[in-house]
Write a structure and sequence with these properties.
With 203 residues, the protein is an alpha+beta fold. The protein is built from five helices and nine strands; from the N terminus they run βααβββαβαββββα. It has a single domain, classed as Gcn5-related N-acetyltransferase (GNAT) (Aminopeptidase, 3-Layer(aba) Sandwich). Helix 1 packs antiparallel against helix 2. The structure holds coenzyme A.
Amino acid sequence: MQNYIIRNETPADYRTVENLTREAFWNVYRPGCLEHYVLHQFRDRPDFVRELDLVMELNGEIIGHVMYARSAIKHDDGRIIPIMTFGPISIAPKFKRRGYGTILLRYSMEKAKELGAGALAITGNIGFYGKSGFVVSKTRGVRYEDDPDADYFLIAELEPGFLEGISGTYKDPDGYFVDEKAVEEFDTAFPPKEKLKLPGQLF
Ligand SMILES: CC(C)(COP(=O)(O)OP(=O)(O)OC[C@H]1O[C@@H](n2cnc3c(N)ncnc32)[C@H](O)[C@@H]1OP(=O)(O)O)[C@@H](O)C(=O)NCCC(=O)NCCS
């Protein structure tokens, strides 16, 4: 655990990090994955948070990555409340479940707070995120616009009290929606991998 560092991603890391993302997500939520292309596209978007585009290195090897995007809660009273969202967050398969994801997540949450984010929203597994301050978002008054009852839509307050009295909806930033044909095309530049339909996948 001692020899890791967390630093900003540089252009020289892009392909390595996209491949890491692909390896981390492959066949986890669907046959194959989209997340490496999401990341590839996001870096050029205005809502991409460059300061929070972070890689984790262990003994000089990149084993983790996370990216953040600016997002918003649409308050029922019409206000737009800026927050942030993050992901993909990836740990290389052979390093999963050794605590590195938690370290990277918590470090990035601290940095997001320093950059002024009052709260973070994410669709994800409460088993992992619940240990780092996330709760089911609808219990704090923020509903996932496409699925208001969703238990997988989570939120964490970074600034104490930020969510007090809030009632509103959240929609993922446009950068998270990608054309599956474009993903297939993009994927041909990576080493061949077999897409498998596995139990537990969401899509
Ligand atoms: C999710 C991910 C980033 C977590 O990183 P990690 O280093 O493997 O996680 P940690 O070792 O820090 O996990 C800490 C705890 O979170 C929980 N946890 C971690 N991954 C989990 C998962 N997939 N499902 C449920 N709980 C999980 C466990 O309780 C774990 O503790 P334990 O191993 O003692 O049981 C990593 O596994 C990954 O890259 N997964 C594939 C991509 C992905 O799903 N990203 C998140 C999308 S929302």
